[in-house]
Amino acid sequence: MITLYSPVLIETAEQAEALPIGTFAVHVWGMGADLRTRTQGGWMSRSGSVLPPSVVVGWTALVPIEAEEEVVVDTADLNLDPEHEYWSDDPNLLDAVRDAPKRTRLVTTWTPAEEA
Fold it and tell me: Which of 27, 36, 67, 70 could share a disulfide with 43, CB 3.0–4.6 Å?
């Protein structure tokens, strides 16, 4: 399993409190930045200090999303005939599919909220 992080603006203390454990919150100002991790008790820094949810309003959350790697065969260049029974024992077709370029993509169950 691979973890991706989706950036989300934290707009309310309730939203900050509802984010999953393991979410990162980033606040950048001038030449500095602050990074906190969502824990059971609030938003913790590397030194162990904890902020309440209301303090991270306006920060950017990096929300963890689980993803699985999927390998896909790219058959676009094979010029497949729609009338052909493809998954038969045609050795030429089976060789073409086996030798076709493959690409890897990450698949998640996460979908963004629709814009209002």
Answer: 36
